[in-house]
Every structure is written in structure tokens, then in C-alpha cells.
Predict the structure.
Amino acid sequence: MRFVPENSYRRRICLSLSGKTFSECRQQLGDAPFAELRLDRIDMNKKEISELIESGYEWIIAVREPFLEKADGAELYDAALTGKIRFVDFDVELLQDPRAQKLLKTARDAGIQIMYSWHDFEKTPDREFLLKKREDIFASGPDAIKMVCMGNRLEDAALMLYLYHGFKNITAFCLGEECRETRITAMKWGLGISYAHPDNAETTALGQFSYTDMLAFGDILERKGDFDDRANLPL
């Protein structure tokens, strides 16, 4: 397992793997110290998953509804939890599903931190709605939350960034091209986590910057001294 300095801005950029096979994901991973594996997107057996996790440094393991349909899902999930996992990320809409509850308990029993994700793929709601949603999600018991909305106008960026006020256990940003700069700001505040797509590979969400671009933004922010104690980056 590679060494990465604890304060490196590279640990703020989560590389969202878009490959389906082991070879595709391993090639995309490269030397990135922090990556996301979407279990619903991949076509691997448990041995390949374990090897991929071992070849990385730190991970977010994301659970979305299609993964719950896999007959061998529990075995694949266990294989994904064999490395250094920063968060297991559950779509908040799955929490009432008994299959998701079993996976959640497995992670909790292993002492792994949990993130709940919420998305609005059409719009950014008003501030009152977003703040109530933030509080409701966090009250349900995760260690961290992720809130992502489609940004259709510049004002939407301000709405999403307001979610960081007085709250550290969150990453929040806009989908789409209009407000994609919120993905850069996400490296600075709250959990200090943003996402990027692999170079020369498809994105996993609208508005993602490439990994190389996000590294460049991170380098600029670090040289400007824009990373401070508002970020809750774990050691």
C-alpha cells in the first residue's frame, strides 16, 4: 500500500472509477490515493474486487439500488471492505430496504464510517428545503452526508454552498456544467471531498472535471493557502 502524506490535497480528490472490469478499473486507478468504487457499475468477482482494493490506498465504496439485485452481492460487498475504507456510501433512499440494512450493519460492525447520499437530478431546491433535508439525513445516524443537486442557474451554487455553514460532516456541490465550480469549492470545506473522472474515460456524473484538472485546481488552492481547519479531512 502506497504512502500518501496526511495533508496532501490529493486525498481530497476522489477518483470515481467508471470501468467495469478489473483491468479497466486498475488502469484508471493509476497512483490515485483516493478513489470511489461504485459496486453497481462493475463486473468483477470477489477476488478481483479484493485485489483492486488492495492495489489502492483509500476508498469510498458506494452502494446504489442496482447492486442490491445481485445474487452474490453480500460476498462482493465483503470483498470491497478489505482495504482502507474512508466511507461506505449508501443512497439515503435505500435505507428502508432490508438488503441495504444488512450491508449497513456489516460496515458498522467492521467499524467503518458511513455516508448517506441524497441527490436531486433535476433541480436545486430552496434553502429552507435543503437545510431541513440536511438535518433530517444527519439525524438518521450517518457519520457524514453527501448532498448533490442539479445546478441550472448561478444562484443554485450559492444555495448548495450554504449547506457548509455551521456543519462539517458534509460534502455538497452541483451537478451539471452551470455550477460545476462548486466541485472545486468542495475540496475546501466540510469533509474536504470532491470527485473527478479518470482521464480519457467517461464521467460518472454530469459536470465532473477530469482527475488531472482537479489536481491542478487542488495545487492552486494549496499554494494560495486556501485549505484550512474548516475541512474535516480524516487522518
Remarks:
- The first strand starts at residue 13 and ends at 16.
- The mean pLDDT is 93.
- The radius of gyration is 17 Å.
